[in-house]
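Appendix C: a fully annotated inverse folding record. The material below is reproduced so that readers can follow the format used throughout the book. The structure is listed first as tokens, followed by the designed sequence.
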């Protein structure tokens, strides 16, 4: 949906677009700045040739729609008179002159002619002229038609009416949704503790356009408590984007939508799924010559969009089914439907990744962002902003048969090999990246100048996208929050432009949108996350915990060594500790460890008191994970060994498994690296001593621990044991991350069984 005043180009794109998706570009790509310069040169020549020549002539027209009076505006590139007949010109600069005019370009020219005809009704005729200008030769190809001003007015009126009919239908649906939302009741019999307070605070944030950081404990029902008030607060042109960092978050959001609108009668909801997951064609060619769903996409897209909007709930199955029936690309269809949606559910990258973010939402100040699992926002943003060029991709690209591309690839290879000769094995900070910059830019220029289709040279694809992102990163690179690191292992070389602090960039994204609510169960200390998110002056709120201090026995066990070199010797003691927990109260337990190697070593030391032993495996897909969880949940006495930070430690709800306890073995600090050390130095310098280690090492570890512990207490009736095995859990640096409802006590491993027995006796009394 196009909001506010309407540009002529937007109107033409909305009504006139036809043909293929990913239409092949003829000739080299012409940058906007170059195109403007070429156009201005031609305009200057015409001004000397025609004394009545005018350029960049503003035109506008008012129109009515269901949301009031609006204007369509634009600037005619050229206007002059040929024997008293006005000639309206639209220029397009291109790398190769087309044989046929583009439908959108032609529609834009007709809009200008029609708007001018409306302003000059006494003129009988008008000439509509679309001129393509070759960027290199300055040759021109003109598509021109002289028509009556009455016809020009009628064409423009028809284009505008096509837009108004669609926009009016949208507003009619949204007004119906608004009336429904006014009467909407919370979809549960009652609020959980603090859930109503969360809902009220989020409602106020949406209404007031705030940027709010909200900590709401895991298990407090925060997804529903955030989404419900956001929908209640929606104005006519508002949209809500529920952003997730994991698939489980998207599933929770879609489940909440189903609770709020169980009959799927009111809310228009779109679930965005990654292109590679929904593409119907093996290899995801994105080429109309290969993909029938891309060929003629724009000729069939409008009825497909209308079908999905009518269905209301556009989840992945509905999108795929509709796309197949209309023979259109499912991914592009899902993006087109977002324009008409009340709620969009999708990954962070659709808003925060500077390369793949949805440009149709850029500057949309009535799009409210609900950022789920906000403890993941800073590391995800750092990853999105960081770029790398890998020699492995260079080696693959060297197989190319294209002689010019081969030369450019060789230049990149020489630049990387020079780094290897200069620095030697290992990780190194790099000050000078000028040679790789030049070599990368030349590769991009050659691909554009030679009009190379990547599908024809698949060996260069990975390297092309490496250098493409590297070149694009110049627009967001800032020397004070980025560093360059080269990693050399044998013949492999990888150069990374690493983001250390994405706060300023994140703030720029917030400013483009409406309200922002960043929420999670793991945001302590709040001041730290505000700084990481670039929002130190914005609002913060901590919801009251719905859980009592007596629901969990929280123990710190410092006398079982977990440091790498001590693990093997302490393994029997760790196994005995777990046996003590299970013997004191049989049931289901999770044991979270820092690595798969540690997990496998502990699994080998398991004993009979543990009961059945299940283990997370590297590379498990969604179906395998689901099967493991079901088997674990169906076993009365069992221990599940997981890796901290994986799917079981953060995204899975163990409600049906009814856990008795969670054991966290080791602090799980990230391994030292140049990048993390650079982060440490940056935050120490900008925020003070101690901040660096907290940001670079302590916070990433504690997020995994607190999230794993959050699997245990999910409701007011849940009780259990949280056992943290590592002496470092008792430091002030670490304790500041603990949830407010924890009352940890330090105990020796020999005393664990006694304390646990006493806890369960008291709890079950």
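Designed amino acids, in order:
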């Amino acid at each position: 949906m196009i909001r506010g005043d309407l540009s002529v180009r937007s109107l033409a794109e909305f009504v006139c677009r036809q043909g293929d998706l990913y239409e092949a570009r003829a000739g080299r790509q012409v940058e906007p700045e170059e195109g403007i310069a070429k156009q201005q040169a031609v305009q200057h020549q015409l001004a000397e040739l025609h004394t009545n020549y005018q350029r960049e002539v503003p035109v506008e027209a008012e129109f009515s729609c269901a949301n009031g009076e609006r204007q369509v505006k634009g600037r005619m590139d050229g206007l002059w008179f040929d024997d008293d007949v006005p000639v309206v010109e639209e220029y397009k600069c291109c790398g190769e002159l087309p044989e046929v005019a583009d439908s959108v370009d032609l529609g834009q020219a007709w809009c200008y002619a029609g708007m001018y005809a409306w302003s000059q009704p006494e003129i009988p005729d008008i000439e509509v002229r679309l001129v393509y200008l070759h960027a290199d030769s300055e040759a021109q190809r003109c598509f021109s038609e002289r028509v009556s001003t009455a016809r020009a007015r009628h064409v423009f009126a028809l284009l505008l009416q096509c837009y108004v009919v669609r926009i009016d239908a949208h507003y009619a649906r949204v007004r119906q949704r608004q009336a429904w939302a006014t009467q909407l009741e919370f979809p549960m019999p009652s609020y959980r503790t603090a859930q109503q307070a969360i809902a009220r605070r989020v409602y106020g944030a949406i209404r007031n356009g705030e940027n709010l950081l909200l900590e709401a404990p895991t298990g407090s029902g925060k997804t529903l408590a955030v989404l419900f008030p956001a929908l209640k607060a929606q104005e006519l042109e508002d949209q809500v984007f529920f952003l997730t960092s994991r698939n489980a978050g998207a599933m929770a959001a879609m489940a909440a939508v189903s609770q709020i609108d169980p009959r799927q009668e009111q809310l228009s909801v779109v679930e965005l799924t990654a292109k590679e997951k929904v593409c119907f064609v093996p290899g995801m060619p994105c080429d109309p010559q290969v993909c029938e769903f891309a060929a003629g996409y724009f000729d069939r897209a409008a009825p497909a969009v209308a079908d999905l909007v009518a269905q209301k709930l556009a989840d992945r199955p509905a999108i795929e089914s509709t796309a197949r029936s209309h023979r259109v690309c499912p991914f592009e269809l899902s993006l087109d439907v977002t324009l008409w949606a009340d709620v969009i559910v999708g990954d962070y990258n659709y808003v925060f990744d500077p390369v793949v973010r949805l440009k149709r939402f850029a500057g949309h100040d009535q799009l409210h962002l609900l950022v789920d699992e906000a403890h993941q926002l800073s590391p995800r943003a750092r990853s999105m902003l960081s770029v790398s060029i890998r020699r492995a991709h260079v080696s693959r690209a060297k197989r190319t048969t294209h002689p010019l591309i081969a030369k450019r690839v060789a230049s990149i290879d020489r630049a990387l090999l020079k780094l290897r000769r200069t620095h030697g094995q290992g990780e190194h900070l790099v000050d000078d990246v000028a040679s790789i910059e030049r070599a990368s830019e030349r590769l991009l220029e050659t691909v554009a100048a030679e009009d190379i289709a990547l599908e024809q040279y698949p060996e260069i694809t990975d390297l092309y996208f490496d250098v493409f992102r590297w070149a694009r990163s110049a627009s967001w690179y800032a020397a004070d929050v980025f560093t360059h690191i080269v990693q050399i292992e044998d013949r492999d070389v990888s150069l990374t432009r690493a983001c250390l602090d994405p706060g300023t960039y994140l703030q720029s994204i917030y400013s483009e949108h409406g309200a922002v609510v960043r929420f999670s169960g793991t945001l302590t200390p709040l001041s730290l996350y505000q700084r990481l998110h670039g929002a130190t002056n914005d609002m913060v709120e901590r919801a009251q915990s719905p859980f009592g201090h007596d629901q969990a026995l929280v123990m710190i066990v410092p006398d079982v060594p977990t440091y790498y070199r001590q693990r093997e010797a302490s393994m029997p003691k760790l196994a005995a500790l777990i046996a003590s927990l299970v013997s004191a109260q049989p049931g289901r337990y999770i044991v979270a460890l820092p690595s798969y190697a540690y997990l496998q070593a502990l699994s080998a030391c398991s004993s009979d008191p543990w009961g059945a032993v299940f283990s997370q495996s590297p590379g498990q897909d969604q179906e395998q994970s689901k099967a493991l969880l079901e088997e674990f949940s169906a076993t009365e006495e069992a221990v599940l060994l997981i890796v901290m930070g994986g799917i079981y430690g953060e995204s899975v709800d163990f409600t049906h498994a009814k856990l008795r306890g969670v054991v966290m073995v080791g602090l799980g600090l990230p391994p030292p690296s140049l990048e993390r050390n650079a982060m440490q130095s940056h935050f120490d310098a900008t925020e003070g001593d101690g901040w660096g280690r907290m940001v670079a090492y302590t916070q990433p570890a504690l997020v995994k621990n607190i999230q794993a512990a959050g699997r245990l207490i999910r409701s007011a009736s849940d009780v259990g044991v949280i056992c943290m095995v590592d002496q470092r859990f008792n430091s002030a640096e670490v304790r500041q991350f603990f949830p407010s409802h924890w009352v940890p006590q330090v105990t020796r491993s020999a005393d664990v069984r006694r304390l646990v027995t006493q806890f369960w006796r008291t709890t079950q009394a």
